[in-house]
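User: Hey, quick favor. My workstation is busy. Could you predict this chain's structure for me?
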Amino acid sequence: MKSTKLIKVVHFGDKLQKHRKMKSVIETMEPYFSEIVSIKTYSDEEKPLFRAIDFLVGFFNKGIFADYIIIDVYSTFNFYYAFFISLLCVVFKKKYILFLHGGNLPYRYKKSEFIFNYILKKSNNIVSPSGYLKYEFENVGFQVELIPNIIEKNKYIFKERNFESPNILYLRGFGQIYNPMCLVKAIILLKVDYPNINVHMLGSDPNRRKEDIQSFINNNDLSNNIFLYEGMQFEDWHKISEKSNLMVSCPLIDNMPISILEGMALGLLIISSEVGGIPYLVTNKKTGLLFRSDDEKELAECIKLSITDSEKSKEITNSGREYISNFYWENVRLKWLEVFTLNK
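Assistant: No problem, here it is.
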């Protein structure tokens, strides 16, 4: 039988996520994938035209000789790259696997139903790291294999926390979609009972909202409680996480944020709005606490609960520790091997 090590895979996706100042999912996956297959990833080109050219050259240079082609599918303009590569696979009779990402993909499906149906039906497999996307696309008739993204086991060391007072880490950034003001408003409500509450907020600022948020903080006498930073490398925000016990996320729309998994792996108690794919990732009162979207009062109650019931908080973080093992390579590896085996 042919060894899986000889399987040639070409992966078309986005190696560049410079705005996040962290590794993309593909960059994290590639070293692990190389243990079981020969893999080449495209593209690290930033400009759309150059990326399209790089994809085209990559397809005829490597893809045409590959056993499998994995194509990342996003809801943004990058969707058309996936369509383009899928068409090439159909024309040249190459086996391809669609890898679905992005909380807005169900909307993209409705907007581009004809072409989306075409590439879905022609694919050999449809894979997603998101239970939410699995549900949405199986609801319209497509079988989706749930394969989690990889959490690097040795990178995240679980630490047991005390919950005597709230020390909050927020990583999602200052864009409107991440709704950072929900947390800021919750702190106003909590400061009465917890005058020393501590919050570190960091991430990208695509719409330049950070200054407005800082002004609101100053005007509401929160400058000794809430501290804002630009996006950081893991090594830097990890130092802040050492002194934190809660990770709060308040998005209006989201799919499967890696930061939540990172928080669980580090032993932080996750508190998040229950939008998009997050309820498929966090089980309320078991692996984290969920609150209604854009409801600062309910968020404040979740934060207060985590402090007043410290034993429950420790139980939740321990459950998160068990759950996160599903994202370690030794488990994810078996699922990918099964996909490749099914396509032989």
